[in-house]
Amino acid sequence: MRVLVLGGGVLGRAIAEALMGEFDVTVVEKDSIRAQTLAESGLQVVQGDFSYTATLLKAHIEKADLIIITTSDIQTIAKTLHVIKSNNKNASTLVILPEDKSIEDIESILKEEYEMEVKVDYIINPRTAIIKAVVETVEKIGEKKNAFKLLQKLNEIKERTDSLLIVMHDNPDPDSMASASALAVIAQSVGLRPQIVYGGDITHHQNRAMVNVLGMEFKKVLRGSYEIKRYDAIAIVDAQPNGNITILDDDDLKRVEIIVDHHQILQNLREKLSPNCFVDIRTDVNATSSIMVEYLKALEIPITDTLATALFYGMYIDTKKFSKLSRVDISAIEFLTGKVNYELLDKIEFPDISTETAEILARAILNRKMYKNVIISNVGFIANRDAIAEAADFLLRLEGITTVLVFGIVDDRIEISARTRDVRVNIGKVMKEAFGEIGSGGGHAQMGGARIPLGIFKLAKDKTSLLRLVEEAITEKFLEALGMKEVT
């Protein structure tokens, strides 16, 4: 690309030197002594007044692709733009806007003095550019500060023990598994031996594929077990105690040293933790994997293509296929570019579906009940909890449906997943309002879940009666929280 830099002062020279080598750059400078100095430094220079046609013709303006105007005089800028567009209509123009002046001021001069309407292609306001650079620098400082605080905490743990227990939520999803794996890598960098555990099941076919394809090592443990008690330090990722973790008791909470999450902080959580616990909970970020990428980047810890793939997929799922992104999410995606193994990613995203999952999807379709544009479906007694969420995702794709709730009975509890595409509904708040008093419920604006102990329904005579009682209670509470009457 051929670039003309008009003005060889401090700014013009710095721009030309920065572009030299990558682009064909010519500087146009009026002062003869300065022009000679620029030429002696190795720059291509044309000496003359760049606001005159003859000078720009000498600089071969007809061949220029981009012309950068560095002067701060607004009259000179307007005159130069007139000359440029009179001799090369196709060249792009970049104007460094003088302080306290607007592009409208320049356009006004062009119209009044030259009877010409000229569109400036690119504008840089120095004050705005400085503010942006300062903000970006502050953000980078913040990223490093968070990462180094985590590193400091891990080093503190290393001084008294050589191991770290990393706890995911009971039924870990891709974001939870990827985040735990990333924290394990960071812990290993200071000499700790991490063990990643969970208390429920990994049943979603894509989640199982992720574990198998990427060779992840997780261990299922029970509440109160030696596998938990033997660790002096515990870290929690993408989850919070007394929220979606059931394997930790009150004594275990005293040993929680690290919590990293992107969900809203649970009530009274900080009161239950050590005051020295490292807590990084950011509700403005859409995936815990994004926070982990920020740590890895700031600490300059190398990552394998399998970890990069896991983190990328964790973000992909929790950001609803990258449809909802914060600054931290975007920065993480940029960092992972070129590190992801897309062949592995394809195997994770499109694994074979199990017969059990297919049967539950069929039940969800057959048992669906419609209330205007809302579907509620009872899939009965099942073992695969994650299939409930898959069924909710599937039913939301039905024409005319905006909100879906699917529930089933797993062991001694009722598991519920809800989805919505109605912008007027925050399904996480709906789930909390509907089921928070009899169990636990919450989530995000478009995706939510709940869990209810089966104890309150145990008076039912048989399974059929139990299912009927559960369905009536859940339907009533959910529709009430949605502000709907039970009308089919």
Describe the protein:
The protein is α/β, with parallel strands linked by helices and 488 residues long. It has three domains: 2-124, Rossmann fold (3-Layer(aba) Sandwich); 140-348, Alpha-Beta Complex (inorganic pyrophosphatase (n-terminal core)), CATH 3.90.1640; 355-482, Diaminopimelate Epimerase, Chain A, domain 1 (Roll), CATH 3.10.310. The chain has 19 helices and 18 strands. It has helices at 10-19, 32-40, 53-58, 74-87, 103-114, 126-160, 174-189, 205-214, 226-229, 250-253, 269-272, 288-299, 305-318, 327-336, 342-349, 355-366, 386-395, 427-435, 463-482, and strands at 2-6, 24-29, 44-47, 66-69, 92-96, 122-124, 163-167, 193-198, 219-220, 234-237, 256-261, 278-281, 368-371, 374-381, 403-410, 413-420, 440-443, 447-453. A six-stranded parallel beta sheet has the order 3-2-1-4-5-6, with helices on both faces. Helix 7 (174-189) links the parallel strand 7 (163-167) and strand 8. The longest helix is centred in the first third of the chain and has 35 residues, at 126-160. The chain is elongated. It starts with a strand and ends in a 6-residue tail after the last helix. 38% of the residues are buried. The mean pLDDT is 91. GO terms for molecular function: nucleic acid binding. Residues 1-124 form the RCK N-terminal domain. It comes from Pyrococcus abyssi (strain GE5 / Orsay). This is Phosphoesterase, putative.
